[in-house]
Design a protein that fits this description.
single chain, 316 residues, mainly alpha, MetI-like fold, 2 domains, two-stranded antiparallel sheet, 16 helices, 2 strands, globular
């Protein structure tokens, strides 16, 4: 009996092995296409994980990771005693929260509006114009914002010519916050609509036909068919967005920020740049980066858990 069972297991494993090699041979070009993204992930995502050890060392660039002195959690203790770290952390959370409130619903609304357009050519031109800001560098956008909204910029020149006085868009803290969020929405809203438009296209057209027979208005179709149809996509993207609450890009706050609004514009990414590249303290910079990753993972898991608890589909 044992011999028969062993032969059966061996034959099953051989079949699976042969099936695996047959699938590789059949889809060899597809597997070949995977090599480049896999190489990117391994080289730029997994290989640098070794550098996390610097967060627990008094890192010396000349001695390297293997020769630097181990200090345990002393680096983290030092960081958590710094007021500048808490300011950067608070600013990161506030700016990301404002982006979530203003920026997350924007592509959903825009995708629904674009879907309701009946003129195909106008719809395509509008989509192209809305996508363009995504492909602009933040350095270019920062220059455009400065030329248009600085004290002697185009917007203030128009306001002065109308006798309305000048507005300090980039030097007053509240005005800067509004500009930061508005420019961020303008930059990303067009690109964000792509996923929602694809989700809307996947909705069963028979539902819209049935609603036409029932005499439903456009608003009722949007509320009862379109929004429920893209609800799973909205939930997944919301979970991912919440997972990024603790992390923030370097280029946008660095380019748009200035010394007059540093109380709001100094975020974790600029803090890491300042202590890591500016001061050469790579241990602190690595520790802050590790802190970001751990807290971001906690946010992501918590958001996914809450989504499943309320009956929605999570990421896993």
């Amino acid at each position: 009996m044992k011999a028969v069972l062993g032969d059966y297991i061996e034959s099953r494993s051989m079949k699976k092995k042969n099936s695996f090699f047959r699938s590789i041979k059949r889809d060899s070009l597809l597997y070949l296409l995977l090599l480049l993204p896999m190489a990117y992930i391994i080289i730029f995502k997994y290989a640098p994980i070794y550098g996390v050890l610097m967060a627990f060392q008094d890192y010396n660039i000349f001695q390297g990771i293997s020769g630097s002195e181990w200090v345990g959690l002393d680096v983290f203790k030092f960081i958590f005693e710094q007021k500048s770290f808490y300011r950067a952390l608070t600013n990161t959370l506030v700016l990301n929260f404002l982006d979530l409130i203003a920026g997350f619903p924007a592509p959903i609304i825009l995708a629904i509006l674009l879907n309701e357009l009946r003129h195909v050519r106008f719809k395509k031109i509008t989509q192209t114009i809305l996508y363009l800001p995504h492909f602009l560098s933040w350095v270019i956008i920062g220059g455009m914002v400065y030329l248009m909204f600085s004290t002697g910029g185009m917007a203030n020149s128009v306001l002065s010519s109308l006798g309305l006085g000048q507005i300090e868009f980039l030097s007053q803290k509240m005005n800067w916050l509004i500009m930061y969020v508005a420019v961020g929405v303008w930059h990303s809203v067009g690109w964000g609509t792509i996923i929602y438009l694809a989700s809307i296209i996947g909705i069963n057209k028979e539902l819209y036909e049935a609603s036409d027979i029932d005499g439903c208005s456009r608003l009722r179709k949007i509320w009862h068919i379109t929004l429920p149809g893209i609800k799973p996509t909205i939930i997944i993207l919301l979970i991912l967005q919440i997972g990024k609450m603790i992390s923030i890009g370097f280029d946008r706050p660095f380019v748009m920020g200035n010394s007059l609004v540093s109380e709001y514009s100094d975020v974790i990414s600029t803090y890491v740049y300042r202590i890591g590249i500016g001061s050469g303290d790579f241990s602190q910079a690595t520790a802050v980066g590790l802190f970001q990753s751990v807290v971001g993972l906690i946010f992501l898991v918590a958001a996914n858990f809450i989504a499943k608890k309320i009956g929605e589909q999570g990421i896993w």
